[in-house]
Specification:
Structural class: alpha/beta
Strand content: 15-25%
Number of helices: 15
Largest sheet: 8 strands, mixed
Number of strands: 8
Distance between the termini: 75 Å
């Protein structure tokens, strides 16, 4: 009898685990079981954070962030330990203008006084992860390109709100621009790059420094907080919910912008913008029917914005959500920004942010390489090694590194 009961319990647990893990995924998404493992792990991490928050533990405290770091190390490499130096790359922390950064210095170019440099800003919704999070890509770039890579450990929200992260990233980049001889890098080959929230920071720094920067690399960037009903938000809100959702995007903006998360539903319904703003020039910057690149087979069914709002909230956030240092897509002019490499993923709520920004760059005749991966999801880019390595991540990494080699090393730009 006891054996039967145990068998029933085991079957029920197995059934629940299957139900929890096997989320529906698009037919054309490759290596689905790996994607499900990634999503299930991150969904579980999110549920743990919800429980801790319910128990009164701060959701994004400095003490809880290492859990996310360890989780991503396990997902990316299979090891919980931070990767360090190896036979190809020397890895160490260094302060730039009193701001810490993780440096990847390739052994092959350690004596080269004119090597390229990539200044990288990690993702994580402005509030989690660290400079070591993009290690698979940064290590590959340093090893294969012989360039110095500087991954900035910028301050995180909600303890440090806007413009703390932007100021940190700008300060490190300006320091590098002004100290190329000391750092033994080529002032003509400085790149800023970042993924997700880091893509936001890279675009903002590129707008500020203009032609002092050779190139900006934006990986599924997070660029606007004006419209949370874009086609990509509507279409992809339930795909890989452990990785990203419109709700998690809105929460990230609110924590970074020092806005109470009690207004999150207003953001998700676009009630945070006034009727006047909904018909303004800024509304045109996020109109997907105007800014979807013709070569893409993606939905551009822009929803007309409903002319109602939470008036008190809209007054509170009006200046912030059109400030290009906070939301780079809202810049009135992209006249002198550096050349760009923009990556988007088809099954990503942030897809249209990158597409609309790429389109706006073309309007200002900025040299652009646009790479869209229709079957990819947000966060896919760093699964190039380890037990969950994805073919599409390896392809995207190889294409980016080849492009950087052609335009930084071989001088084809």
């Amino acid at each position: 009898m006891i054996t039967v009961k145990r068998s029933i319990v085991a079957i029920l647990i197995a059934g629940w685990c299957y139900w929890y893990m096997v989320i529906p995924l698009p037919d054309d998404m490759e290596e689905k079981w790996k994607v499900r493992v990634i999503d299930t792990t991150l969904r579980t991490l999110g549920h743990m954070a919800d429980v801790l928050e319910y128990l009164g533990v701060e959701r994004l405290s400095p003490g809880s962030r290492p859990i996310a770091d360890v989780t991503f190390r396990l997902l990316h490499s299979g090891s919980p330990f931070a990767p360090g130096s190896d036979e190809h790359v020397k890895v160490y922390y260094q302060d730039f203008n009193r701001i810490p950064a993780l440096v990847y210095e390739p052994i092959s170019s350690i004596n080269d006084p004119k090597r390229p440099v990539v200044v990288y800003f990690h993702g994580g919704g402005f509030s989690v992860l660290s400079a070591e999070y993009p290690d698979p890509l940064l290590r590959a770039m340093a090893t294969r390109l012989g360039c110095l890579v500087v991954s900035v450990e910028y301050r995180l929200a909600p303890q440090y709100v806007f413009p703390a992260a932007y100021n940190d990233c700008l300060a490190v980049t300006e320091y590098i621009v002004n100290n190329t001889d000391t750092l033994r890098v080529d002032f003509r080959r400085i790149v800023v790059a970042g993924d997700s929230a880091g893509g936001n920071l890279a675009a903002g720094v590129a707008q500020k420094l203009g032609k002092k920067i050779r190139m900006q690399v934006l990986v599924y960037p997070m660029l606007q907080a004006f419209d949370f009903l874009t086609p990509s938000c509507r279409e992809n809100k339930e795909i890989c919910p452990g990785i990203i959702t419109p709700k998690s995007i809105a929460r990230a903006w609110m924590e970074y912008g020092n806005i109470s998360v009690k207004h999150i539903q207003d953001f998700l319904c676009n009630n945070h913008t006034s009727p006047k703003m909904k018909t303004s020039k800024w509304a045109k910057y996020v109109n997907s029917s105007l800014h979807v690149l013709d070569v893409l087979n993606v939905t551009n069914s822009h929803l007309p914005m409903q002319l109602h709002s939470n008036q008190q909230l809209s007054r509170q956030v009006a200046k912030l959500i059109v400030n290009p240092q906070f939301v780079p897509l809202m810049a009135d002019s992209l006249e002198d920004v550096p050349n760009a490499y923009v990556i988007t993923a088809g099954y990503d709520p942030l897809r249209d942010d990158g597409i609309m920004y790429a389109h706006r760059l073309t309007e200002y005749n900025v040299k652009l390489k646009f790479k869209h991966y229709p079957s990819a999801f947000h966060g896919f880019f760093y699964f190039i090694n380890g037990p969950l390595q994805l073919k599409i991540a390896q392809t995207a990494t190889n294409e980016l590194i080849q492009f950087l080699n052609d335009h930084l090393i071989e001088g084809k730009y």
